[in-house]
Amino acid sequence: MRYAQGGGLTDAGRAARERVRLQAVERFERGEKSKEIATALRVSERSVERWRKSWRERGEGGVRSKGSPGRPRLGPAQMERLERELERGPLAHGWPDQRWTLARIKALIGRLFHVSYTIEGTWLLLKRHGWSWQQPARRAIERDDDAVELWKKEVWPQVKDRRRPGVRGSPSRTRPGSR
């Protein structure tokens, strides 16, 4: 059975699993076979073989729990540095335009702090620290808003299509309605 990251277990559950692994170590030292250990401890033979390999390579410490992996967190000093780097802009970090995307910020965090966030995790981190989502307005630099408003008020009403009077018709394309 596969477990979610962290094993999906509480600290007590992780401790219980570690006790089982340590019992397996005792049996390794007595020279018991993997199949016997798996049956006695009610685990898969494959797990026992994996533990035995770790035990041979690193001793008892190889089968001990590494603890909950937890989520990556940036400390206050790291967050301040990240904010300074974000204020410098994407161009300063090698991206060709002036847009920060979550993927770019995720990559920047990885480069600066050697911590891997997901895209969603990056968004939650930024949101927690008061950053907001913004979309740049796509407008031409030459745009004249006053001229646009004038055109909407004076020219558009003259140009827009007047409704044609209703005519009896047929929904058929090949047989037009009679007048």
TrEMBL record:
Q: Which InterPro entries match?
A: Homeodomain-like_sf (IPR009057), Winged_HTH_dom (IPR025959)
Winged helix-turn helix domain mapped to chain residues: 97-154
Q: Where is the composition biased (Low complexity)?
A: 167-179
- Sequence segments annotated as region (Disordered): 160-179
In terms of superkingdom, the source organism counts as Bacteria
Which Pfam families does this UniProt record tie to the protein?
HTH_23, HTH_33
Name of this protein: Transposase
